[in-house]
Amino acid sequence: xxxxxxxxxxxxxxxxxxxxxxxxxxxxxxxxxxxxxxxxxxxxxxxxxxxxxxxxxxxxxxxxxxxxxxxxxxxxxxxxxxxxxxxxxxxxxxxxxxxxxxxxxxxxxxxxxxxxxxxxxxxxxxxxxxxxxxxxxxxxxxxxxxxxxxxxxxxxxxxxxxxxxxxxxxxxxxxxxxxxxxxxxxxxxxxxxxxxxx
Length: 198
Fold this sequence. Notes:
This protein is mainly beta. The protein has no helices and 14 strands.
């Protein structure tokens, strides 16, 4: 099953957009940290977006527009519902530093992914990465690329263990890299309902 793990994206040319007030933060009965991207005024995630990543509400590019409620983060363009810009498309969606992880901590998220399908797993890389203590070194904990068939519908990720980072402070990011400028007339990647279970 190709629902995880590998490599690292190049830098993005665009200036980061800090969504300093975050999106939505809720604490569950099991001390979950959960972001459904709905409430722009209350969050401790403080997502920073680069490239084509941006928050969308009721987007026509995915059906339904979000995994829950009406908002999600989208790597793509609203007008064309593709990530085709005439050049390689790259970008990251990065959380603030998060702490409190335990040996049993896990990560899950919902996603809508529509990218090129090739026999060569070298294009349209989608990954989730973790950085320790605000460093610029990123470890991949979830990975799919053009060799992984994409179905344009909302899916729930595998449960991703974070126990290796117990007691440490981490940042979390979602990274997209098309790797080239061609065959980018696909919807792209939407992310919703990010949950760290402590």
